Structure formats: structure tokens, C-alpha cells
């Protein structure tokens, strides 16, 4: 590593370290058993996407042969791929060991994943009958010979492959698992005993190829490059309808080059060479694991358990609370007009925002509703309310990003439904994804134009609002409303260079202003303070400025869930930078920026991480926080994260993460915020009146400041 890279690290290895932290949650004995298995599932799906996107991108870069190097590590794409494969292999072993251990412990509770030989005779009979009647009729087996070419193996579809012999002829045979089949077969009985359907296909493969002798067989899965760049090859045709272009891009994704091959067991050298040549793929891209190749089904297991077992094996249920101070029986428009409100997910409900849109849809004073959408749930009340608003004659404009990765088809479907209801649907920019989370309600009140603006850190997704930590500001501040109106006007006319007084909008003003805010703290030297909560940091300019801040004596505290390309504590460079990552029950997702202290502090919430893609290649919004109560609430969230000594890990100067030392009583920030939300909701005073006694988080904050 050269001297200029001593305080930075490669983003891919940093991401793998994050996913390792996710996997490590599966070893935490304080987490219920089935929840621990879910962490293995999350790790698995994360790794799938990593190979499809990041590894796929590096293969594309390597094939360009343009001499490009990673700005954080100085490595070429080929060197990065070598480092990735070396780092991933031990993670497969760790995943396998953890998965096997958890499944053994779950068997004590009657939750058993079984192989066919482990089934009781009656269960084997049941499974065999299921295979004959429900599986065999929908299978599409194929051999490969001069008349049957090697098939296209679909991305992330499980296959069973084999060497088979007919008379003196040996050929490759393959059967893909049909999408119509469930991932597992639950067996009759009081316990939850189940077998993977691919295990059944593996067991009865000889019946699929009658007359053939199966010499060798394996369950396998191909992962393909899914990093379609919509600005070039996927859109190299002349069509006016953007939705049609996206539909073609989705079809192309299924056929891109393989980047990984997963196998359920070792295979012979000849079999391995055959697959390497045919796919094609290299041996270093092949990974062998006895753990299931897919674990998505784990999330549905709890619903099949009796109540007593479910309580023992899963988290205690938590229902998001109504935000303290919000009156469920009073108009949301009226409440927000009096005072800014901040919703904190998943500790508090998304319902007040949805109620606001539902109310606006029928309010005679509402002229228009404008919103940017990146990801939505499969079932979305928000769309229902927007459609209702259009049907009530409101001017509804929806800027929907069709290129939200892996949600493209969902967004295409929603865009069609919105258009049918009379909404104006636009798709943003050819070269920039619109990732901002902003909604503007415009009203005409006694001849005056008034605004209600919502700005959030997370998507308008009712499902993930119960799984991700995010914040959502609801404000009637006319300064922010005027900027939001200007923002939507600029989006409608394709202008990325708009000027705003309050909002920071990428790609034009966000990064420039962040650098200036950091310079302002650098000028204060050791009186300066920067506090950031984000998901990832890779932008080299922001990293360099943080290094300068550290060298000037500025205290820099960062809560970075995932990728962190700046290394803290490097002598002479980042000695004043401190980084922690929290991985827990919920996915940390909120982005909060603070510069300065006390009355001089400038605070923002944003949709943007400190990544080049966010600061330079996306439309993002950061919103200043002026309201004193909202600022206090955001500081309570930050203070809880900084006090966490249970789920937080501290980044070291060598890139390793270590758990916080537990000085004093243990603090789990997410549990703390859950408890605080419940306590505030139960003891909420009448709307808009301050609490007379400090709450749990206020007490914590005082304790932190004393220390």
C-alpha cells in the first residue's frame, strides 16, 4: 500500500467486512435462534447481490483494459477480484459452520431441516409421492450432446447437474428447479420437519433420466453479472418509451456473464473442468458449501410455529408507536402547520405520513401533491392515496425511478397504475438516478399559497419502514416549501443546476456545501465538531476533507453501518476520526449530518450517503433542521448510537472491527429507542405541550455529556 493509501481502504473489502458483521450476529447467543438463522439468510442474499453488482462491475472494468485503479487502494480491477475471492472463501466456511450449528440447536425445538436419508419411512413415502405427483410433471430435464446444446443457466436458479451414462455414451444432464415449486416441503407431523425440494430432485434424479446411469451429481447455482448500466449497452436503441427500455434491460440481466458458481459438494476434476469451460468460469470463482444455497424461506418459518415456540425462537413482537404529540383525531395538515414533526422508523409508525397524503387527497384547499419515489412495497397504501388524489382533481406528479435496482419491475407496474388514475408520471434523468425522498403538498389557504413538505432518509415503503431505521421530517416551513416547489419544477423541466436556499441538492450543491461546512469546522480547529450518521463513505474528496479536519484537531465522530473507506486513528492523518458500526435487529439506514455544536450547529437529514454515486451521479436531497424539538430528537438518536456498547463495533486503523468495551451497564441503541418510543407514546402529554419530566433518552444524553 502506497503512502497516499495509508488512511483509506478498498470499498469491496470494507463491504465484505460489513457482511461479516451481519453473519457474526448469527453467533450472538442473546439473539433468539430463528432470528440468528435469519442473519445467515441476510448474509447470503447480501453476498448474492454483491457478486451480481460489485463483482460484475469489476469484471466489466477488467475487460475494458483501460488501466483503471481503485482510488482508495490503488488496486487494478483484477487485483481487487483476487482480493475479493480470497476474502470470500473463509466467509463460506464460517457461514457453513454457523448454519449447521444453528440447525442442530433448532432441532431441539422441533425445527428440523432434513436430508432424504434422515426421513422416517413414512416421511420418505410421503416425499416420494410428492415428487412423483407435484414435482416430476413440472420439471424440464435436458442432456447436452450434438443435438442438445448447452442450455442457458438462469441467474440464481438452483439446478441439479449430473454426469449420466447411456450404454457407452457419457453426457452432461441438468434440471433447473422450476419457480413454481416451493423451496421446501413441510412433512406431516407435530414438529416442523422439512426437506429442500432440490434435495428431493437430487435424490430422485435417476427417475428423471430413465435408462441412464447417474455417475455423479451435484446441486449448483450460477450467479451472473447483473450490473446493467442503463446509460450505455442496455439502452443502445432508439425508443421513446422509457418503460419499454427498462423491460428490455430486465430481460438482458438474465443472460449476462457468470461471476460465481456455487456447488453443494465437491465434484470430480473432469466435471469441474467441463463446467468451467462451458459457463465459462474459473476455478477461483467456484465455491463449495454444504449449507443451503438459498435461505429466503427462513423468514416464513416463524408463521408455521405454535405460539409458545415462536416466542422462544423469535424476537419479542414490537409494534411501532404513534409519535408522541401527534393527535390521531386531528387533521395532520393542521398539526404540521403548528409545529414540525419528526417520525422515527421503525420505532414509530409511518401512518401519520400516510394519513397526511390521504387527507390531502380530499382536502379542498390542496392544489397539488408532488413526490419522488425510489422503492415501494408490493402493496402500497401510498399509491392508493395518490391515485385517489388524482381522481379528486388534484394535480399529482410522481417522479418514479424505474432504475431502482431489483425493484424495476415493481416500479414499472406502479407507474402504469398511477398513470391510469390520472397522475402525471415522470422518470427523471438519463444519466442520474433520482434517489431523493421528498414530497410537497401545495395548498391555497385564504388566497395564499402554503406548503407542507416531507423529507426523509428512507423510501416510502410501508414494509421496510418496520425494518429499517429512518427519519421523516414533516414541516410547514415556507423556506423549505419554496425550495421543494423549485426542486419539482426543475425536475419537471430536466434542470439539474437549480439554485436553492435551504435544500442541498445533488449533483449540484450537496457535495460542494458539505465540503464548505467541513471547512468551517476546520477553521475552528480543536473547537470544531463533525458528527455524521450514514450507511457508507467512499467519496475520496469527502474522505480527504475529513482527514484535513482531523489534522486540524476537529473531533470527527462517524456512525457508518456498511462501507467505510476511511481508516480512523492513523497517525498524522486521522487521529481525531472515530468510526463505529451498528448491526442489530433493524437495518441502520438514517443519514444525519451535524457540523458544529450548540447554537452554531448546522444539522441536516438526507437521502444521500457519502458515496460518489450519491454526491455526483444521483439526484439527492439534504434538508436543514431548524425546529428545536426535532433537533433534540435527532440528537437523542445519535446519542443512543454513540452510547451503544452491545451492538456497536469500533473500526480500527488496520480495518478490523472490535466490539465496544462494556463500561457500565449494557446499552443496545435500538432497544433503547424502542423503549423510549413506547414510554413516550404511553405517557404522551396533550399535543404540542412539552413534557415536564425528562425521558429515558434525555437522561442518557445528560450522562453522555457528563462523561
Describe this structure in words.
The protein is α/β, with parallel strands linked by helices. It has 3 domains: 155 residues, Polyphosphate kinase middle domain (polyphosphate kinase like, 2-Layer Sandwich), CATH 3.30.1840; 154 residues, Endonuclease Chain A (Endonuclease, Chain A, 2-Layer Sandwich); 189 residues, Endonuclease, Chain A (2-Layer Sandwich), CATH 3.30.870.10. Helix content is 38%, strand content 21%. It contains 21 helices and 27 strands. Strands 14, 18, 19, 20, 21, 23, 24, 25, 26 and 27 form a 10-stranded mixed beta sheet that branches. Strand 15 and strand 16 form a beta hairpin. Helix 1 runs parallel beside helix 3. It is globular, with a radius of gyration of 27 Å.
What's the short version?
With 707 residues, the chain is α/β, with parallel strands linked by helices.
What descriptive keywords fit this protein?
Endonuclease, Chain A, polyphosphate kinase like, 707 residues, ten-stranded mixed beta sheet, alpha/beta, globular
Helix-strand blueprint:
Elements: H1 11-24, H2 33-64, H3 77-107, E1 111-113, H4 121-135, E2 142-144, E3 158-166, E4 169-176, E5 184-186, E6 192-196, H5 197-203, H6 205-208, E7 213-224, H7 242-253, E8 258-263, H8 269-278, E9 286-288, H9 298-301, H10 307-313, H11 332-338, E10 341-345, H12 351-362, E11 366-373, H13 381-391, E12 395-400, H14 408-420, E13 424-426, E14 433-434, E15 438-445, E16 448-456, E17 468-475, H15 478-493, E18 504-506, H16 510-524, E19 529-534, H17 540-551, E20 555-560, E21 577-582, E22 587-588, E23 591-595, E24 602-606, H18 612-616, E25 618-624, H19 628-643, E26 648-651, E27 657-659, H20 669-682, H21 696-706
Parallel strand pairs: 1-6, 8-9, 11-12, 12-13, 14-25, 17-22, 19-20, 20-21
Antiparallel strand pairs: 2-4, 3-4, 3-7, 5-6, 7-8, 10-17, 11-15, 15-16, 16-17, 18-25, 19-23, 21-26, 23-24, 24-25, 26-27
Amino acid at each position: 500500500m502506497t503512502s497516499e493509501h495509508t488512511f483509506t481502504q478498498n470499498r469491496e473489502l470494507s463491504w465484505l467486512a460489513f457482511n461479516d458483521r451481519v453473519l457474526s450476529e448469527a453467533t450472538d447467543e442473546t439473539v433468539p435462534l430463528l432470528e440468528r438463522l435469519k442473519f445467515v439468510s441476510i448474509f447470503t442474499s447480501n453476498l448474492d447481490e454483491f457478486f451480481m453488482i460489485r463483482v460484475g462491475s469489476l469484471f466489466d472494468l477488467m475487460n475494458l483494459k483501460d488501466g483503471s485503479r481503485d482510488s482508495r487502494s490503488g488496486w487494478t480491477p483484477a487485483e481487487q477480484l483476487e482480493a475479493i475471492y480470497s476474502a470470500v472463501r473463509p466467509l463460506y466456511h464460517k457461514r457453513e459452520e454457523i448454519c449447521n450449528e444453528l440447525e442442530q440447536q433448532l432441532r431441539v425445538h422441533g425445527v428440523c431441516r432434513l436430508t432424504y436419508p434422515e426421513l422416517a419411512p413414512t416421511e420418505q413415502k410421503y416425499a416420494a409421492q410428492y415428487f412423483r405427483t407435484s414435482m416430476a410433471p413440472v420439471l424440464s430435464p435436458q442432456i447436452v450432446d450434438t443435438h442438445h446444446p448447452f442450455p442457458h443457466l438462469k441467474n440464481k436458479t438452483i439446478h441439479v447437474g449430473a454426469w449420466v451414462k447411456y450404454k457407452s455414451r457419457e453426457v452432461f444432464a441438468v434440471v433447473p428447479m422450476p419457480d413454481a415449486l416451493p423451496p421446501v416441503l413441510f412433512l406431516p407431523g407435530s414438529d416442523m420437519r422439512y426437506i429442500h425440494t432440490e434435495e428431493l430432485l437430487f435424490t430422485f434424479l435417476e427417475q428423471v433420466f430413465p435408462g441412464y446411469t447417474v455417475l455423479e451429481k451435484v446441486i449448483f447455482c450460477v450467479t451472473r453479472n447483473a450490473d446493467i448500466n442503463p446509460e450505455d449497452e442496455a439502452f443502445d436503441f432508439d425508443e421513446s418509451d422509457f418503460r419499454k427500455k427498462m423491460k428490455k434491460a430486465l430481460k438482458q440481466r438474465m443472460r449476462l456473464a457468470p461471476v460465481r458458481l456455487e456447488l453443494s459438494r465437491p465434484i470430480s476434476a473432469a466435471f469441474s473442468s467441463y463446467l468451467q469451460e462451458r459457463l465459462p468460469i474459473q476455478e477461483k470463482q467456484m465455491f463449495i458449501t454444504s449449507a443451503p444455497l438459498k435461505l429466503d424461506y427462513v423468514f416464513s418459518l416463524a408463521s408455521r410455529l405454535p405460539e409458545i415456540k415462536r416466542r422462544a425462537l423469535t424476537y419479542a413482537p414490537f409494534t411501532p408507536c404513534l409519535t408522541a404529540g401527534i393527535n390521531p383525531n386531528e387533521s395532520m395538515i393542521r398539526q404540521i402547520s403548528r409545529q414540525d414533526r419528526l417520525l422515527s422508523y421503525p420505532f414509530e409508525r409511518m401512518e401519520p405520513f400516510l394519513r397526511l397524503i390521504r387527507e390531502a387527497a380530499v382536502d379542498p384547499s390542496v392544489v397539488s401533491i408532488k413526490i419522488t419515489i425510489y422503492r415501494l412495497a408490493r402493496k402500497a397504501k401510498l399509491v392508493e392515496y395518490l391515485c385517489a388524489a388524482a381522481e379528486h382533481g388534484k394535480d399529482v406528479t410522481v417522479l418514479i425511478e424505474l432504475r431502482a435496482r431489483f425493484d424495476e419491475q415493481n416500479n414499472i407496474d406502479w407507474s402504469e397504475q398511477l398513470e391510469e388514475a390520472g397522475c402525471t408520471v415522470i422518470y427523471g434523468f438519463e444519466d442520474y438516478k433520482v434517489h431523493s425522498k421528498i414530497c410537497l403538498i401545495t395548498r391555497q389557504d385564504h388566497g395564499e399559497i402554503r406548503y407542507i413538505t416531507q423529507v426523509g432518509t428512507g423510501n416510502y415503503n410501508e414494509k421496510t419502514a418496520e425494518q429499517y431505521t429512518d427519519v421523516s421530517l414533516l414541516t410547514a416551513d415556507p423556506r423549505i416549501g419554496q425550495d421543494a416547489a423549485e426542486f419539482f419544477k426543475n425536475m419537471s423541466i430536466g434542470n439539474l443546476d437549480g439554485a436553492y436556499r435551504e435544500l442541498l441538492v445533488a449533483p449540484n450543491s450537496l457535495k460542494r456545501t458539505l465540503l464548505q461546512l467541513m471547512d468551517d469546522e476546520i477553521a475552528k480547529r480543536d473547537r470544531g465538531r463533525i458528527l455524521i450518521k450514514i450507511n457508507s463513505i467512499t467519496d475520496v474528496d469527502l474522505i480527504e476533507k475529513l482527514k484535513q479536519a482531523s489534522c486540524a484537531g476537529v473531533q470527527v465522530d462517524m456512525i457508518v453501518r456498511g462501507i467505510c473507506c476511511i481508516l480512523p486513528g492513523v497517525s498524522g492523518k486521522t487521529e481525531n476520526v472515530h468510526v463505529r458500526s451498528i448491526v442489530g435487529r433493524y437495518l441502520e439506514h438514517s443519514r444525519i449530518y451535524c457540523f458544529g455544536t450548540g447554537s452554531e450547529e448546522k444539522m441536516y437529514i438526507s437521502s444521500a450517503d457519502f458515496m460518489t454515486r450519491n454526491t455526483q451521479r444521483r439526484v439527492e436531497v439534504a434538508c436543514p433542521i431548524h425546529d428545536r424539538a426535532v433537533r433534540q430528537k435527532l440528537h437523542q438518536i445519535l446519542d443512543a448510537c454513540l452510547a451503544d456498547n452491545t451492538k456497536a463495533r469500533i473500526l480500527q486503523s488496520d480495518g478490523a472491527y472490535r466490539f465496544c468495551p462494556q463500561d457500565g451497564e449494557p446499552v443496545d441503541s435500538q432497544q433503547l429507542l424502542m423503549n423510549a418510543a413506547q414510554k413516550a407514546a404511553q405517557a404522551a402529554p396533550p399535543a404540542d405541550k412539552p413534557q415536564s419530566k425528562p425521558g429515558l433518552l434525555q437522561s442518557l444524553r445528560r450522562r453522555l455529556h457528563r462523561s
